[in-house]
């Protein structure tokens, strides 16, 4: 199954400020990943090309990294996830920057089933939580995207295993 899943958020900050925050991804000082509610993002060798890591049962390696534009990861697990996911940053104006997260993959077998019935919903909630956390650093009107029933159900079920 072809999967193209895109999340975007415009943040009222210059691109260089967004870049500085994005550089903390997967570090002890991570300011973006919502590790308060989700498995932490980790890389054995730090955030650099070739580094292996992931979060929870999802595994990948850093395929491309240009701190000014993109961090791209290639999936290695779960089986049946064939493709990439990436964070990109784009200057919209001098004081407005867009951050996006894209999954572009083909799924097969159990990978298709796990994507459709579980991972897609959990992934969408995680990315929106990350973008909320990121945006909330710069605004007084705090965002909090509510998890849907399916996400709450899956999280509860997985917590009881």
Tertiary shape? globular
Mean pLDDT figure: 95
CATH class: Alpha Beta
Q: H/E order of the elements?
A: EHEEEEEEHH
Oligomerization state: single chain
Reported for the largest beta sheet, the result is:
7 strands, antiparallel
CATH architecture: 2-Layer Sandwich
Extract low-pLDDT stretches: none
As a whole number of angstroms, the C-alpha radius of gyration is: 16 Å
The portion of residues assigned to helices is: 25-40%
**What is the percentage of strand-forming residues?**
35-45%
SS-based class? alpha+beta
State the CATH topology. Answer: Alpha-D-Glucose-1,6-Bisphosphate, Chain A, domain 4
CA-CA gap between termini = 28 Å
Written overview of the protein:
The protein has a single domain (2-159), classed as START domain (Alpha-D-Glucose-1,6-Bisphosphate, Chain A, domain 4, 2-Layer Sandwich). It has 3 helices and 7 strands. Helix 2 (109-136) packs across helix 3 (149-159). A 7-stranded antiparallel sheet has the order 1-7-6-5-4-3-2. The longest helix has 28 residues, at 109-136. It has 161 residues and is an alpha+beta fold.
Short description:
The chain is an alpha+beta fold. It is 29% helix and 36% strand.
Spell out the key features of this protein.
7-stranded antiparallel sheet; 161 residues; alpha+beta; globular; Alpha-D-Glucose-1,6-Bisphosphate, Chain A, domain 4
């Amino acid at each position: 199954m072809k999967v193209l899943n895109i999340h975007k958020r415009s943040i009222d900050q210059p691109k260089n400020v967004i870049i500085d925050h994005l550089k903390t991804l997967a570090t002890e000082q991570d300011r973006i990943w919502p590790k308060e509610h989700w498995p932490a993002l980790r890389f054995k060798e730090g955030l650099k090309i070739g580094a292996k890591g992931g979060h929870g049962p999802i595994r990948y390696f850093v395929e491309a990294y240009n701190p000014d534009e993109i961090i791209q990861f290639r999936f290695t697990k779960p089986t049946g996830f064939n493709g990439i996911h990436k964070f990109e940053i784009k200057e919209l104006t001098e004081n407005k920057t867009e951050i996006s997260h894209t999954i572009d993959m083909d799924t097969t077998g159990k990978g298709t089933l796990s994507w459709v019935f579980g991972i897609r919903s959990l992934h969408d909630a995680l990315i929106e939580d990350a973008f909320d956390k990121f945006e909330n650093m710069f605004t007084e009107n705090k965002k909090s995207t509510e998890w849907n029933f399916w996400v709450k159900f899956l999280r509860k079920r997985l917590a009881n295993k």
